[in-house]
Amino acid sequence: MAFHHLIGDPMKMITAIIRPERLPDVKATLFQEGITGMSLSTVLGHGGELNTVEHYRGSAVVFEFVEKVKIEIAVPNNMVDTTVNAIVRSAQTGTVGDGKIFVQPIERVVRIRTGEEDSLALTPIEPRVSIEIARNK
Questions:
Q1: List of domains in the chain
Q2: DSSP code string of the chain
Q3: Mean of the pLDDT values across residues 104-129?
């Protein structure tokens, strides 16, 4: 897919909350698609999983929140489906707790170092072909 470089191009913020153990596969799949610009955070969440009860020094301790990884990726509109599909393919285990993906509009992006705006400020998304050629060198 082509990466557009126009100020004012529609962009989306994709936020994925996934299992920490799925991160290496998700990252590898995104990189294979040419999507390399992302931010990661460790977060605690509670969804459909059951609470975990552990005993510590004779007392029951209830863990209501589970550790997850939050991935945030800003992409032009033409890369939303590719990005979402890559995350689903690589994060899905088929059990409760696989996570969620949220897609939200972005009004404006500014690269602090250069002042570039909108799609110009996003990390370029290289077509898969150029990545594969670079790997073979």
A1: 11-136 (3.30.70.120)
A2: -PPP--TT--EEEEEEEE-GGGHHHHHHHHHHTT----EEEEEEE-SSSPPEEEEETTEEEEE--EEEEEEEEEEEGGGHHHHHHHHHHHH--SSTT-EEEEEEEE---B-TTT--BGGGGSPP---HHHHHHHHH-
A3: 83
* Stated pTM of the model: 0.78
pLDDT in tens, 77-114: 999 999 999 999 999 999 999 999 999 999 999 999 99
